[in-house]
Amino acid sequence: MTPSSPYGPPRPPEPRSASQGVRPAFVRMHRRRRRSMLLGLLVLATAIGVTVSRGGEPSVEPPATTQGGMGHGGGVAAHPAPTGYPSVGAGRFTAADGETSVHGTDGPLHRYRVVVERGAGQDAEVFAATVDEVLADPRSWIASDELRVQRVADARAADFTIYLATPVTSERMCAEGGLTTERYTSCRLPGQVIINLARWMEAVPDYGASLDTYRTYVINHEVGHEFGEEHEACPGPGEPAPVMQQQTYGLQGCVANAWPYLDGRRYAGDIVP
Prior knowledge:
Helix content: 25-40%
Number of helices: 5
Largest sheet: 6 strands, mixed
Distance between the termini: 60 Å
Shape: globular
Oligomer: single chain
Radius of gyration: 28 Å
CATH architecture of one domain: 3-Layer(aba) Sandwich
Number of strands: 8
């Protein structure tokens, strides 16, 4: 279909007759009409642009450099658009209600709060129940007998907060701490454990384990950073991947593993510089 001009059909040639005596008035009228139509189109375009920017995905310019540190970073190739979950939410969060009992036998008590981004399509109570189950497991960080954990609802009582955030929101949050996630990975900033909804829903390609295993891994990994743990390397082909290995970027020959303690002992690899 041939697009029509916004100004109407082409104007016929100017007649060369006595009617040219009224041509200046006709031209002025036509120019005023064209200016009015241009103004109307500009106003319409501006209104549409505002609607899209408010209701759709805002443009986010990623930082020019990639940084890792206590969160995640690294050159990640372009990834397919998400399916089955939103890429951007409200940017505001709903906290899970209530609190758990204290888990762990000794050491300082670390109180955490769990929140979910509004518009992410996830229930805060359900997400919190998964987090609670992971952190209370005897294979998790409490196995050290050097720390205890408890979920609380009051932000003033929490030592750190665990967020479930859409890719766009998680990227913005991580970028505030200088971390580049390219809307793909999760990260940790001081007092903030930020779980990317995309990874929560999809895990990563070729992980070789269930989605539940990946979810357990990402909670233990990012909370491990909050407890002062650093990145670790795969000990060797076929060995379990340390939970502090960046398993999201690949297992490097190791086998997926979600727990920091195996058979009651801390399982770790060499620290990655």
